[in-house]
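Quick one: structure for this chain?
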Amino acid sequence: MKRLSTTARTCLVLAGLAAATAYAATADWPLKRDIDLSSGFGDYRPRRFHAGVDLRTGGRIGADLVAPVSGHIMRLRTSYDGYGKVIYLKGDDGYVYVFAHLDSFNDTIDRTVREAQVAAKRYYTDISLPPDSIRVKKGEVLGKTGKTGTGAPHLHLEKRTADNVPINPLRNGFSLKDNVRPTFERVGFVLKDDRGIFADGSRRMFVNVVPSGKKGRFTIAEKLHFNRPFGLLADCYDQMREAGMRQSIYSLELSIDDRPYYRIVLDTLQFESGPMSDLEFDNVAVANDSKRVRRLYQEPGNEVRISRALAGDDGVVGANDGLTIGRHRAKIVGVDAFGNSSELSFDFVWGPKEGVCAVDSTVETGLNSLDAYVGVSAAMKAIGADSIDLQMFDGKDWGVPDSLVRTKLDDGRYRYAIHSSKRLAQTILRLVALTDDGFAIADEPFYGISSYAYTKIGILPEVTEDGLLVRLVAPTVRAGAARLELYNGDSLLGTEYPTRFTNTKEYLFFVPPEPQYAHITKMRGALSQEPGSPTDGIIDVDIRLVGLHRTERVTSDSLLTLNLGREYFYSPLFVQVQHLDTLPTGDLNSDVYDIKPQVFLTRKDFPMEVKIRSINQVNDKTGLCWYDPEKSEWVWLTDSEWHNNDRLVTASSAGGGRFAALYDLEAPLIYRVNIKPGMTYYNRRPEIRFEIVDNLSGIADDRAIDIRLDNRWMIPEYDPESKVCKTQPLEDLTDGAHHVAITVFDRAGNKAEHYFQFFVKDRNPK
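Got it. Here's what it folds into:
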């Protein structure tokens, strides 16, 4: 069967998008104003995807929410966090419409909610209503927009199928005028083999994107060469209007040489796959506040239906895909929900692992002179290289030696003769294959003659999200070889050899998470690959490989314990726990521990516990906290719990960083109460408003706030972001004195109380 070209496939996709959008554009928007979006369907959220679209309300509260279709109210919820006040409307068209972060409901809905809250004596409600108990007509006002739950003022809109599956509103009935093409900002590359390292010593890199010719066309200026399998990342976004808010692009497709490799389409989402958002987006970029970087390859454990690999090994380029040595073209096509498209394309060279150039031999012709013989390899011919440079590293940069003489021999090889003021046997060299269109492909550096030397070296390990990166560093180096020995106690677990060395002082090793390295306690390094030769550096470590077994316990100095195991991880990874020497403060009730890496992928939060050394009367005010390096403050983990009998404090975490147990001995502060004690108010239903501030543990939920008016329970409506709490009498107050009692608890159990009396009087008594 004849295969369609990428251009033809793109045209068909665009035509289908336009037709489907025109057909589905039948619903009214729930706001009677120009529609402008602040977030899109499928945007990243921690441990979930954004299941709808966010409509801007001009930064204001109080716009009318109108029903887009006729139907009935099927569910109502209220909470301090998440969606805040939310309405679920079952439309007569069979779909479910969700409206969240409301400031208020209409009278009928509000009466239903308040009755449930008073009956339960809780602000939190989740009410399921019988069909047609509250009928709604298309265009009827359901409430007012607000900012309850989380975020600035806006309206969150979802459209779901009858069986509660979120679908993209922009592809299912809600149309917009949108002529703006998606934008690409960067393209990223992540090495996916078990040894590869980029020249800067990392396993990932980003390259900035530049416009290319026509509008909506992008490329990169860099000439890229790979010889290890890699996955692509796209830092990209869509806008509904110029200078509008940025959202995820509806559809992305990666192809190599017009062969489809990976495709993402944001038509629908499954709530159960929400925790996999860190697999669909790049979790490392997210941790660095770049929440729009999309993976164009499949991570282990990713079962999200919005994306799938079409070639290679899970969409990884160069992995079991038959990619030939030579030049190739990568293309990423982005299409928004209304058919506007953009394209990022660039060329790259795929080369062999052993290098492009062929060094046949090096011969020392004197203390300061060297001859190198280089043959023309098949790889050079495949990439179109027309010349080879021999470069020398001078301690700061690479360059062609002034004394270099290049001669072509009768057998087709080349002879490079160098004379230098340094002894060339101890000088680092490399070969660079050059093409006439600007590709410069550097092979791994090598030394002139010497293969080993002995000198003291430093060993610098770094636990990363996919392995262990180790650097051997020396003040001076006279060797072209190195090795790294990994131990548990005195038992040798394995020997690793450098993936790359970048200059005369540094060798780079990448250690994959293999079962043999289950527990590494010591590392030895040497500037020689000869077995048994002396090692020149040693360091003690405590690095564990977790995710191998059903249950695993990692401890540090018998006080900190991490309860880990297969159920928490998508694939095995290294974890390092370090005890930090810190000066004691009045808040600390334990030592400080650093868990590395700070960012890693988990299926769910893993439990941790800290045993408290001391016995005192305020240990029950202790909670586990995580240190936020950006804000330079401790954050109380919301599920932190004190266990008095075991002197343990427990909590759970989704990643690493610094952790410690801290006291919270300060009660919340109740202040800025709007009702003044002893004052008379000519309003039979005055709103009572005040602010709650807590220094560390925070307010857990609605049960932590109790408001009594004349000893009758009042509905506490609290906004954790603004710290404002408000309530209002459900019935008219009588003339005379009225008493208010406010009690607030924080998560540590500290209590604040505030009492006052005010008077109500009819302004116009009969």
